[in-house]
Amino acid sequence: MKGMICIRDARDEDLGFVHELNQTGVPNVNSLTRDEVDWFRGVSASFRVAELDEKAAAFLIALSPGVEYASLNYRYFSRRFSEFLYVDRIVTATWARRRRVAWTLYEDLESLAKRRGARRLCAEVNVRPRNDDSLVFHRRFGFREVGRQDTEGGAKKVVLLVKAVG
Questions:
Q1: CATH number of 104's domain
Q2: For the chain (length 166 residues), average pLDDT per consecutive 10?
Q3: Range of the domain at 124
Q4: Which of 59, 97, 98, 108 has the fewest C-beta atoms lying within 10 Å of its C-beta?
Q5: What is d(CA 121, CA 141) in angstroms, rounded to the nearest whole number?
Q6: For residues 78 and 68, is the Cβ–Cβ distance under 8 A?
Q7: Sheet holding 5-9, edge to edge
């Protein structure tokens, strides 16, 4: 069926796709090496791929509390909350945007959060350099701003976002 979205766990054969797609999302997401993609697969609470019309179209990586991870944004949420899922990154292929792929990945993550008893989803979005599409998307999905911080020595500024899971 045309327009069908399928969400599934990432498999070994997806890791090259994830790495390549991630790199197309820079600077809205940080660059990753292939080894870092493998590391995320081992520590993530959720490492999911979205297929649109049976073709890999997007991925989402989320972490739960307690991961040894140097990210300033992850640490911000870890200091403030004990029960959460943190969206470290989500990237959708250009051809699949505005077709509910990212929305469906977030619905899938929210369902996981409910099953695990995580009380909130956490994420950040760049405001320097500005990522207006992502800001609008997160607000529509129900995220609210809880803070801002500079990262990468001031090269980036992010808005820190939380959505209650109920």
A1: 3.40.630.30
A2: 91 97 96 97 98 97 97 97 97 96 98 96 97 96 98 94 95
A3: 5-164
A4: 98
A5: 11
A6: no
A7: 5-9, 46-52, 55-63, 85-92, 120-128, 156-164, 144-151
Containing 134, the helix (H) or strand (E) segment is helix 132-141
Residue 100 has phi, psi (to 5 degrees) of 70, 15
DSSP annotation string for 82-126: SS-EEEEEEEE-GGGTTTTHHHHHHHHHHHHHHHHT--EEEEEEE
β 120-128/85-92 pair status: parallel
Task: Please report the pLDDT score of residue 1 as a whole number.
Answer: 64
**Which residue type is seen at 118?**
A
Q: How many CB atoms lie within 10 A of CB 158?
A: 21
Instruction: Count other C-beta atoms under 10 Å from residue 154's C-beta.
Output: 8
Q: Check: CB of residue 45 under 8 Å from CB of residue 64.
A: yes
Cβ atoms of 60 and 90 closer than 8 Å: yes
The tokens for 76 are 């911000």
DSSP-derived pairing of the beta strands 120-128 and 156-164: antiparallel
Integer CA distances (angstroms), 124 to 14, 30, 95, 151, in order = 25, 12, 24, 11
DSSP state of 130: B
If you count them, how many residues does the chain have? 166
Residue 46: what pLDDT? 98
